[in-house]
Structure formats: C-alpha cells, structure tokens
Amino acid sequence: MSVIAISPISGTRLATLLAAGMWLTGVGVGPVEDASARVSTASTASTMAVSDHARLHGVGAYGNTLIEEGRVEGTLQGRVKVRLNIEVENRTATSRFTFYLRGGNVVGHASGRATTGEEGWESFGGEMWLDHGTGRYAHASGSGRMYGALNRNSDVLIVQVMGRARGL
Known about the structure:
Elements: H1 11-24, E1 47-62, E2 65-74, E3 78-87, E4 92-101, E5 104-116, E6 121-133, E7 141-151, E8 156-166
Antiparallel strand pairs: 1-2, 1-8, 2-3, 3-4, 4-5, 5-6, 6-7, 7-8
C-alpha cells in the first residue's frame, strides 16, 4: 500500500515508523498490499476488499481526544473525519470515524494499541469496524485493521485501513 509522503519526514521514514508501530503493538501480520489493487470482489458477491489511506490534519481537540480531517483515497473516495484518543501511558488507541462519500456516509470505530516513537510521532494499530451508513451506504458493515501514525508536533495523522466490507 502506498503512503503519501509528508514534510519534514520522508515517505520511507514514515513507512518505517508505521511498520515499527505495527510490530511494537503486535498487529500487522501479512504483506502490505499495493494501492493499485484497490478493490477485489470476494466469493460472496456483496463483500469486497477495502484498502484506504488518508493524510489528515488537526481541526480541534478536547481532553485527550483529537479531531482530524482530510481526504481518503483507495477503495473509498471522499473525505474522512476522525475523533482519535491515544493514551500512550495505557498503550491504547480508540477512534470513531465518518467517511463522507458521494451518495452518503459510512460510520465506524476502531480500537487497538499505541506506542511512542521519536520526534513527536506516536503509532497505533488494531481492529476496525464499519458500524452503519446513510444514503446508498445505509447497509454498510465490515471489519478489518487500522494502522496509523500521529505527529503531536504538527497534528498530522496518517491512517491506513484494510479489511472487508459489505454495502459499499
């Protein structure tokens, strides 16, 4: 899967941070997919593979919760808003997110483990669930893995999602 490079950290260094975070948190087994393999139909006609990534920026915060927004690319095309809570002391990360897509929205949540990196970076990884949707995505559901890295100095959040979904 491709990762969008950001400044001042290189794409290679970010990929290394994400991989290290996945290894440290005990998640992320198996090969990383190429972004060109965006959608593949499963044996069940209504189930599809989902592979998305986003580079988000901070738009607000309250308590330990950060609110991040940005463009999502991959299987889903549109915008995403994430409410992220990372508690490195407890090694936990939880989030609620909404994908804003043409024709409706998809809402979900994730939880997993978090680790502290260097130069203000924190990484997290864990399980992700698509809870419901609106409009043409009213019957959306699914699950998978969510991985990411947050730079506390710049409020930049990079997220990768891989899994299986219905109703998309």
